[in-house]
């Protein structure tokens, strides 16, 4: 067996424990404590006036779009108070902080010293206040002018043997305007190497929905929630990651919807919810949200869905036409007969056992679904980051198609997006596999020939950098090193680059494990004013339900040296392409309306962009499913056949899902608590079932090391505290990014190439101190 590469200083969080305190798992989410905690955070970080100003304008029409998640705002009822949640307020506080990193900070702290800090400590340092440069062999970042920084990048890019030796990553906070310019620059430079966070996030959803339904986005709107009869929530923890969704669920429930949660963990937000914005919430009244909770094993979803479908089929065959929507199936789908033939021979009891769910509960779900036609299925990372993620999501589509639950009010698909503009970035063309339609439009409008060969996604670009085939890494936001799998391998890959560049708001680990030379380019965040000629300019974003609306920051930037992302792209393009560019970059930088006009000319659905984006609440993009159409080659929705096989674990093996705690936004760690799960002051924990703990001769609170051996490489993460938790047998959970060192770069989802961050096979050994 080959060894895991040696640890690279600064690449991982220190293996240091902070002192676990255990509390009870909370019965209900949100409520007054959440609002208080949010206010404390915002005011503490930003100071009273900045904090209140930011919160008051968060998600308010005409204010700025919450940077925390992509859940939509209500279309109509959003004038008085701002719609936000505890975690949105934290994300804003994190950005609105008045602390800043001056050149003194960097001269006092070497890159190596900073790498010894935890993510929590690094994040707490403050905003980056001016461009910083790390010369070859240097130990400390030093200030650099914007002009010199752009010159350096341009020179390095132009020195490459081919444009394909550069990689341009995007995280999902980048606005439509910046994203459109960025992909335009990258393509004019000559490559489609545009990996993005989506490759690690909802890529599986986009792939599955695109193939089955003809559009890679969800079909429902917020109003559909209020009309739904059944809402299924699979592999998602909205209490922490999309708290405003709980308000919609509560309203749906009040309107009579049945809520079914499918999750290995009894997540607090799903179980109960105190709405801080209603009187009942303030009084601490706890309406239970979930009606049926199915504690599925990790990756048991496809077996479970098939069991449900099979029970429905049996009922339909007893009483034809009463369970399935035969009219919808005949008129809108293809592959039904083959699908049914494949399904019939399964045994529902066996499928339920395979999924780890009591058969009686599966029968109950089938009984509920049998008589209903308005069904919404929501899902997130609990389904997308698995080897068979695309097939599992297609299985959800199968179920909805059987029930005729797509393209009508109160029904449809709802992949709940993560980053606040990750969906918009893809709409703008941030994609390593662009369609010919997009490239044709670019060619026609901008008079250059964009490259046609596909570029690298996240996993491919890491391998290319590791192999020395990609030499310049440029990131528009994000924290590539910590968000990606196989930390040691990725760290080596970044270190092999000639130049690594990060456009960032805050310091993170990706600045500290770098190429031969490195740059940090500080940009304005969502909450910051973007002033030019006395005008506070706005950008726009697309939420999870395809609504495009404007976002205008309100706070005075912490430093005069920050540039907006669109301006950074324009100057980068000018420095790199010079007179060979066909694009008027300086005009874009001066006037964002011109960017939007050119988006309108290039991307479908943006007619009258400048006018409609200024309307309160913005506008909906077209969605074929919503209109009852399927833009597949056959113009029909496709039933998909796959087998519900799951990996067979040896008795000593465990399956690990890497999840988010309540106090983090991806790789940004706000605090050390996971309040709803009753875990305080420690992130190096592994949630395990009682029996699994006992079988290994361990006890609650013991210290263990985690090992993964995928592909014959040994990967180890040391020092995790065992926490007994209600989780199915042979399933475990840990927090990322601490355990990304264990996620094999060679284990990816079929078709979408998403790292299988929720399906890591482990053995656990008692930690021995040497
Ligand atoms: N506060 C906050 N908000 C966020 C984020 C954040 O980090 N913090 N991140 C944003 C981003 S980019 C994203 S993508 C979203 C992520 O939102 P989520 O997808 O909710 O995030 P995870 O923590 O990865 O949670 C995955 C959930 O799936 C469950 N799960 C894991 N494996 C399986 C499985 O095999 N089957 C089933 N049925 N369930 C499973 C886990 O128990 C957990 O409840 O949130 C966004 N919003
Ligand atoms: N093991 C495991 N790994 C995962 C996941 C998982 O569930 N498990 N989830 C995956 C998912 S769903 C995602 S989306 C990725 C996230 O991957 P990324 O998007 O790369 O990571 P983030 O932690 O969201 O990025 C945070 C950094 O973005 C910068 N930033 C914040 N706001 C702005 C801004 O407005 N502009 C710019 N330019 N920079 C900004 C700050 O410097 C901050 O440090 O991680 C993936 N990795
Ligand atoms: Mo995400």
Automatic annotation (TrEMBL):
Residue stretches making up the Molybdopterin oxidoreductase domain: 127-502
Required cofactor(s): [4Fe-4S] cluster; Mo-bis(molybdopterin guanine dinucleotide)
Domain of life: Bacteria
SUPFAM superfamilies xrefs: ADC-like, Formate dehydrogenase/DMSO reductase, domains 1-3
Pfam families in alphabetical order: Molybdopterin, Molydop_binding
Residue span(s) of domain Molybdopterin dinucleotide-binding: 654-757
Keywords for the protein's UniProt record, in alphabetical order: 4Fe-4S, Iron, Iron-sulfur, Metal-binding, Molybdenum, Oxidoreductase
Keyword Iron: yes
NCBIfam families named in the record: Fdhalpha-like
Family membership noted in the UniProt record: Belongs to the prokaryotic molybdopterin-containing oxidoreductase family.
Protein name: Formate dehydrogenase
Organism whose genome encodes this protein: Dyadobacter beijingensis
């Amino acid at each position: 067996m080959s060894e895991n590469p040696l640890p690279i200083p600064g690449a991982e969080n220190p293996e240091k424990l902070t002192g676990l305190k255990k509390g009870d798992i909370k019965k209900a989410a949100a409520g007054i404590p959440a609002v208080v905690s949010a206010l404390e955070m915002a005011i503490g970080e930003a100071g009273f006036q900045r904090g209140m100003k930011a919160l008051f304008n968060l998600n308010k029409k005409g204010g700025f779009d919450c940077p925390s998640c992509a859940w939509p705002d209500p279309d109509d009822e959003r004038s008085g108070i701002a719609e936000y949640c505890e975690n949105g307020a934290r994300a804003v506080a994190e950005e609105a902080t008045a602390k800043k990193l001056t050149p003194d900070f960097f001269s006092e702290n070497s890159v190596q010293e900073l790498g010894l800090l935890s993510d929590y400590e690094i994040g707490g340092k403050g905003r980056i206040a001016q461009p910083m440069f790390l010369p070859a062999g240097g130990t400390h970042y030093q200030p650099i002018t914007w002009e010199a920084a752009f010159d350096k990048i341009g020179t390095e890019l132009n020195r490459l043997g081919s444009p394909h030796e550069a990689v341009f990553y995007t995280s999902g906070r980048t606005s439509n305007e910046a994203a459109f310019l960025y992909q335009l620059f990258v393509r004019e430079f000559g490559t489609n190497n545009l990996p993005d966070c989506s490759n690690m996030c909802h890529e599986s959803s986009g792939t599955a929905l695109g193939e089955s339904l003809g559009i890679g986005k969800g079909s429902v709107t917020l109003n559909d929630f209020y009309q739904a009869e059944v809402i299924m929530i699979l592999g998602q923890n909205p209490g922490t990651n999309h708290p405003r969704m709980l308000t919609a669920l509560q309203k749906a429930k009040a309107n009579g919807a049945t809520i079914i949660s499918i999750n290995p963990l009894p997540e607090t937000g799903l179980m109960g919810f105190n709405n801080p914005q209603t009187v009942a919430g303030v009084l601490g009244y706890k309406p239970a949200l979930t009606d049926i909770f199915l504690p599925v094993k990790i990756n048991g979803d496809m077996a479970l869905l098939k069991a449900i479908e099979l029970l429905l089929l049996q009922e339909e065959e007893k009483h034809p036409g009463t369970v399935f929507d035969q009219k919808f199936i005949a008129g809108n789908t293809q592959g039904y007969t083959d699908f049914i033939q494949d399904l019939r021979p399964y045994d529902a009891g066996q499928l339920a056992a395979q999924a780890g769910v009591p058969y009686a509960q599966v029968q109950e779900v089938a009984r509920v679904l049998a008589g209903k036609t308005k069904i919404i299925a929501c899902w997130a990372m609990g389904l997308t980051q698995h080897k068979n993620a695309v097939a599992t999501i297609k299985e959800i589509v199968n179920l909805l198609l059987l029930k005729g639950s797509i393209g009508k009010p109160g029904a449809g698909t709802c992949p709940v997006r993560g980053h606040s503009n990750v969906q918009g970035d893809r709409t703008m063309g941030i994609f390593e596999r662009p369609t010919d339609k997009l490239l044709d439009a670019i060619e026609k409008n901008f008079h250059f020939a964009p490259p046609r060969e596909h570029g690298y996604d996240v996993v491919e670009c890491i391998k290319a950098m590791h192999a020395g085939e990609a030499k310049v890494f440029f990131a528009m936001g994000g924290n590539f090193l910590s968000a990606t799998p196989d930390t040691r391998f990725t760290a080596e890959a970044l270190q092999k680059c000639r130049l690594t560049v990060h456009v960032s708001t805050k310091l993170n680990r990706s600045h500290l494990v770098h190429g031969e030379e490195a740059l940090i380019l500080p940009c304005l965040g969502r909450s910051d004013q973007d002033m030019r000629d006395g005008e506070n300019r706005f950008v726009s974003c697309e939420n999870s339900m395809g609504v495009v609306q404007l976002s205008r920051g309100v706070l005075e930037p912490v430093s005069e040296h920050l540039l907006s992302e669109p301006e950074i792209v324009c100057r980068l393009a000018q420095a790199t392409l010079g007179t060979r560019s066909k694009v008027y970059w300086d005009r874009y930088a001066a006037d964002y309306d011109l960017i939007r006009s050119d988006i309108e000319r290039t991307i479908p659905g943006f007619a009258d962009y400048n006018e409609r984006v200024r309307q309160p609440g913005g506008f909906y993009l077209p969605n074929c499913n919503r209109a009852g159409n399927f833009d597949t080659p056959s113009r029909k929705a496709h039933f998909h056949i796959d087998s519900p096989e799951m990996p067979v674990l040896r008795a000593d093996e465990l399956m690990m899902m890497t999840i988010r705690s309540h106090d983090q936004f991806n790789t940004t760690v706000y605090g050390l608590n996971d309040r709803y799960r009753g875990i305080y002051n420690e992130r190096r924990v592994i949630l395990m079932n009682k029996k699994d703990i006992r079988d290994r001769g361990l006890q609650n609170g013991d210290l263990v090391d985690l090992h993964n051996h995928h592909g014959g490489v040994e990967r180890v993460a040391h020092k995790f505290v065992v926490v007994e938790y209600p989780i199915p047998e042979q399933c475990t959970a840990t927090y990322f990014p601490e355990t990304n060192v264990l996620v094999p770069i060679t284990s990816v989802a079929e078709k979408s190439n998403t790292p299988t961050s929720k399906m890591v096979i482990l053995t656990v050994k008692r930690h021995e101190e040497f």
